[in-house]
Amino acid sequence: MNFTHPFRDEDGDKLREECGVFGAINANDASALTALGLHALQHRGQEAAGITSFDGQQFYSLRGNGHVAENFSSQEAISELPGFMAAGHVRYSTTGGSGLRNVQPLYADLASGGFAVAHNGNISNAETVRRDLVRKGAIFQSTSDTEVIIHLVATSRYPTMIDRLIDALRLVEGAYSLIVMTPEGMIACRDPLGIRPLQMGRIGEATVFASETVAFDVVGAEFIRSVEPGEIVRVDFDGNVDSLHPFGNHSPRPCIFEHVYFSRPDSVFDGRSVYAARKAIGAELALESPVEADLVVPVPDSGVPAAIGYSQQSGVPFELGIIRSHYVGRTFIQPSDGARHSGVKRKHNANRTLVEGKRIVLIDDSIVRGTTSLKIVEMMREAGAAEVHFRVASPPTAHSCFYGVDTPERSKLLAARMDVEPMREFIKADSLAFISIEGLYRAVGQESRNSKCPQFCDACFTGDYPTSLTDLTLRQQDAAQLTLPVNKDS
User: Parallel, antiparallel, or unpaired: how do β-strands 272-273 and 222-226 relate?
Assistant: First the structure.
């Protein structure tokens, strides 16, 4: 959600969750409610957290690096955030720096009053819009693409806040789920394709919004419905709720990786239990890629539901052949390369007495660079496994995401450089198979993938991006210009 895009190599080999947002209006304990909701969304962003509140007269903000509990567990912290409306954000910076100035919600004093925004997603033409705004005199305080929305709202000529926000959103492309706070109330909106999730609920007289339904379970709210793709929901301080659809009709393309990995298993996404979807993915994988084996072993924790589904479908017993430590600090803080490289063994340890002499089917959610998969296969062999077969609960990740997920540049994605057999050789498995894209669609409740208009955003697997990628196109054009031969006069 910032502008540079270095790939960080220090913390394993998973796609990074994007961000999580939570908002509450007309709640007596809005900030405490928001902190609890963010705690349920911690898996979506573990780098920083922030909450902004409003008491009818003034906005208050508290932001910090680290987990929600590190910043908002004390009564003292919550007391600094008074009011009956609050919005919060947990962050993993999908691109760029992790400085405090980028921690959300972002806040600005506009001519019409305070404006705070929490954003999950990524604006794929943010660099282009930002350059234009800077040329016109805008001064940016962060490197976050989210700030582009604030400047567009501030410079819009429309008379009302809602019309200025709509005007701003018409100028951006990409993915966004937003929770906006103004002196008039709360606005929640989702991009026209619904790439990033956003849910709506109620607790007493309060209306709440969250990236995932699990946050409602934790705070005791009733799930009402998903915010629809392209919908803008307004809630005022009298409890009135109204809905606008200003962007026309579009075929929704929610991110299919929410089913595979990002959402908590106890959430409901796109009307389907995430846990049930992951078990179905494992069952499809067993049908597509069976293998003679003694044990099905998940790569914890994200591989567990798919491994259960694989085991139930195949009849091969499910066992916890890898034990994960939940108390390991993030590997990037370690002082030496050797310590960083030992990160996999400190996080995962083979259950030696269980796997020794056995033919193992390892189930993981994805392979990104392949380095972690290689280390886990080697760990199984060191523990005495007779055979190690690797099964992946998603198709090969061969393309970068530009919609709010931190993926490596494409040249560092193993599936972008290799076919399946060379990938198998790279991770040193006895066999390797991925679920097919059609199998994935079946598992999440679709008869098949509509190739002309897919029902999900699956660009990381197919390269079929559902929106324009203006900034990427311009960078590629600039790179091409730099490589053109120079004509010199003879």
Answer: unpaired
How many whole angstroms separate alpha carbon 257 and alpha carbon 366?
Answer: 10
What's the count of helices (H) and strands (E) in the chain, helices before strands? 19, 21
User: 34 with 98, same domain?
Assistant: yes
Does one domain contain both 313 and 166?
no
The length of the chain, given as a count of residues: 490
In angstroms, rounded to a whole number, what is the distance separating the alpha carbons of residues 72 and 78? Answer: 6
Residue carrying structure tokens 């996080």: 347
The Cα-based distances of 311 to 243, 277, 291, 433, 450 in angstroms read 45, 15, 11, 16, 29
Answer whether 17's CB lies under 8 Å from 407's CB: no
Please name the residues in contact with 486: beta carbons below 8 A apart, sequence gap of 6 or more.
none
Distance CA 237, CA 85 (A): 9
Q: Taking a C-beta distance cutoff of 8 angstroms, is the pair 365, 302 a contact?
A: yes
- What's the confidence (pLDDT) of residue 17? 56
Q: Give the separation between CA 89 and CA 50, rounded to whole angstroms.
A: 5
With 0.70 as the threshold, say if the pTM is over it: yes
> Which amino acid, residue 129?
V
Joined together, the tokens standing for residue 472 give 């990427």
Query: Domain range for residue 210?
Result: 19-252
Count the domains in the chain. 2
Q: Is 19 noted as a catalytic residue in this protein?
A: yes
Pairing of strands 185-190, 431-434: unpaired
- pLDDT digit string, tens, across residues 184-237: 999 999 999 999 999 999 999 999 999 999 999 999 999 999 999 999 999 999
Which structure tokens are listed for 275? 């846990």
Q: Cβ(460)–Cβ(401) under 8 Å? A: yes
Pairing of β 268-269 and β 387-392: unpaired
Six-digit token pair at 146? 């989210």
Query: How would residue 340 be classed by pLDDT, with cut points 50, 70 and 90?
Result: very low
At 28 the pLDDT is 94
CB 321 within 8 A of CB 295: yes
**What CATH number is attached to the domain comprising 154?**
3.60.20.10
Same domain, 227 and 284: no
What residues contact 373, with CB distance under 8 A and at least 6 apart?
Answer: 13, 364, 367, 390, 427, 429
DSSP annotation string for 434-482: E--HHHHHHHTT-SS--SSS-SSB-HHHH---SS--HHHHHHHHHHHHH
Count of CB atoms situated within 10 Å of the CB of 89: 32
DSSP 13-64: SSPBP-EEEEEEES-TTHHHHHHHHHHHTGGG--SEEEEEEE-SS-EEEEEE
If DSSP codes are grouped into helix, strand and coil, which group holds residue 354? Answer: helix
For 329-339, the pLDDT digits (tens) are 443 333 344 44
pLDDT of 404: 85
